[in-house]
Structure formats: C-alpha cells, structure tokens
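User: Please fill in residues for this 356-position structure.
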C-alpha cells in the first residue's frame, strides 16, 4: 500500500546557505494521478499547492536550496507523466477574475478554470472566445499552449500575462510579441529554459458579437438557428462533448497530436493517391494544414490498444487510459501511430501533449 503524502508546514530545512524556513505547505512523495487528466500514477518528490503567488519566492528558494528541478502544473489536462518527478511540483491554484477599466478587458488568475472564464465572459456580454468553450485546463495553461478551436486562437484576444521568473525571482509582464505565439505553441514551450510561472492573463474581448463560423462542423451544428455568441457556445460544447470523452470518466488529454502543416506542393502529390484528402489554408499561401484525425482514420487506428492505453473508438486523435495504463503505454502507442502516418503519407505528426 502506498504511503500517504507527508505535509510540511512552517518547517526548517537545512541548505548550503544555512537554515531555510518554509511557511507554506509542501508535501513529500505525492501521487500525481489526481493532477493529470490521463490519470497516470507517478510520484512527485515534493508538491506545493500554490493558492497565493506570494508563496512562490519561498518555493523558489526551497527548490534552489536542494537543487531540485521545478515543474509547474495547472489541471494537467495536457500533460503525460512517464516517470516519477524528482523535484518540486508547483500546482497553480490561485483564483480570481475581474473586468478591468477599458471596454472589454478581463483579467483572470492562472488557477481559474478556462471554461468557467468563457462562461463568465458571456454572462458579462464580452465576446470572442465562445469558440474556445469546454477546452479543459486552466487560464494559466491557455497561453502556453496558445489554445485554439473552431477557427479561433487565444492569441487573437491576448493582451498580456504576468509571470514569476524562477531564475531571477522577479515578476515579468509579457506582451503578445514577448510570448511568440504560433500554432499550439509559445515561447514557454519553445524555450523551457525560460522557467516562467504564469500568474494571470489579460484579454481584450469585444462588446459586440464578432462570430467566427468558418469551421464546417460548427456551421452544420448551427444550421436552422440564429447564430449568436450563446448559440455558438452551446454548439461548441455539444460538438466537443459528442466527440471527446470526459476525462472524469476515462483518462485522456483530448487531441494527442497537432494537425500537421505541409507545403501545398506536398498536398498536390498526396492527392494523386488520396483525392479526398481534406486540407485548410493557413496564413502562409504556400502551406496548408491537414486533419491528423483523417490521416489516422485511413490507417484504421480507432480502438487499437497497446498495454493499458488505447485509441478512442470514436476519435482517432484521442488516446485514453483504458486499463491502468502507464505513461510509457501511451507514449509507445503514440509512437506506433505517428510512425504509421510517416510511412504511409510522408507526414510527421507532432504531439500536443507535454510529456514529462
């Protein structure tokens, strides 16, 4: 039987610099299965539930005194653990959201649930992010991933974020340019050495609806009814609920792979063999985006298993914890899938999920 985590509060730790007193709770040997949506069991050597960002300087000092690596977690909806984590996990659980002076400005703490923020904005007649409804995770994770769905991306409404710099101990304010957003990407993923902890995010929304209905599935869902921000929100929730399994019922992280971007000439070559291959234009006229799910469907991946991991029966992009899967089970299954697509189409799949 696994030992219960040990809590540490107001405890003194020996370090090279002397005695370090920690005045907030740190737990030792914590099972991370409740903190990742795959439900994979791995252990964290140390774990801190950060409800007040004012505790971060002490957390930084604690990690530095023991030369521990630091991992920042939100709701773990885009994270897969394949090993125990030998350092300090910072679980960002700070809360708060507010409408700021200035038309359409809203600020939310990193620990706020993203979907609840979308609902809050709609309830206050702030529009633009309704297409991003029901995306799992926290506000703090949203800019790291540059979340997007149904024709909308976070960066379109992003103003700035506040972050705690674990290297310097300073608070940084980062603009859209600073964050270097790209497709499901940002400086936080491009350069992990940055060691930044997102504290809060500020968005600029609109006071009048500016609906984005370009996504085919969304158009179909709204057929025969008036398109409003609320009907878009409801339609997106219905689509996501019908396609993606609930992590509370079966462990998963939503779409495991990004939609690959290839050259237009490569698309023409592929369509000689696969004339029905769908593609979407990108901002670059020479590049197009392919639906990874379509590629995986052609190779019959739905329902296939490896160890305790499986591909969902209804959506080939979704890998699930079917039977007490390990992180390694999931990764090996994903590798098999991406290898088959590379061999069949000459297209490389990249993961959306962060693998620890």
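Assistant: Residues filled in for all 356 positions:
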């Amino acid at each position: 039987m696994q030992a219960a985590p040990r809590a540490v509060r107001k405890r003194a730790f020996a370090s090279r610099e002397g005695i370090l007193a920690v005045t907030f709770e740190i737990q030792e040997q914590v099972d991370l299965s409740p903190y990742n949506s795959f439900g994979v069991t791995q252990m964290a050597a140390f774990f801190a539930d950060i409800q007040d960002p004012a505790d971060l300087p002490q957390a930084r000092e604690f990690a530095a005194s023991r030369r521990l690596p630091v991992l920042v977690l939100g709701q773990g909806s885009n994270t897969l653990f394949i090993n125990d984590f030998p350092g300090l996990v910072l679980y960002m659980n700070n809360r708060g959201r507010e409408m700021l002076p200035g038309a359409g400005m809203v600020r939310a703490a990193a620990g706020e649930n993203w979907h609840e923020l979308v609902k809050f904005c709609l309830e206050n007649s702030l529009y633009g992010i309704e297409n991003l409804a029901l995306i799992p995770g926290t506000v703090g994770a949203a800019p790291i991933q540059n979340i997007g769905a149904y024709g909308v991306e976070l960066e379109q409404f992003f103003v700035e974020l506040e972050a705690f710099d674990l290297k310097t101990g300073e608070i940084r304010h980062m603009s859209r340019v600073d964050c270097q957003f790209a497709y499901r990407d940002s400086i936080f993923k491009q350069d992990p050495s940055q060691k930044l902890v997102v504290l809060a995010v500020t968005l600029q929304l609109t006071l009048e609806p500016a609906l984005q209905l370009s996504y085919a599935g969304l158009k179909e869902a709204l057929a025969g009814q008036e398109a409003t921000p609320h009907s878009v929100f409801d339609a997106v929730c219905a689509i996501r609920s019908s396609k993606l399994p609930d992590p509370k019922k079966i462990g998963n992280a939503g779409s495991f792979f990004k939609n690959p971007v290839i050259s237009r000439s490569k698309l023409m070559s592929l369509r000689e063999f696969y004339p029905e291959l769908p593609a979407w234009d990108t901002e670059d006229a020479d590049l197009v985006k392919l639906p990874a799910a379509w590629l995986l469907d052609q190779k019959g991946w739905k329902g296939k298993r490896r160890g305790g991991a499986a591909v969902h029966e209804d959506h080939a992009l979704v890998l699930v914890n079917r039977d007490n899967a390990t992180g390694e089970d999931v990764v090996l299954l994903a590798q098999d899938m991406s290898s088959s697509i590379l061999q069949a189409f000459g297209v490389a799949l990249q993961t959306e999920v962060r693998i620890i």
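For context: The chain is about 25% helix and 30% strand.
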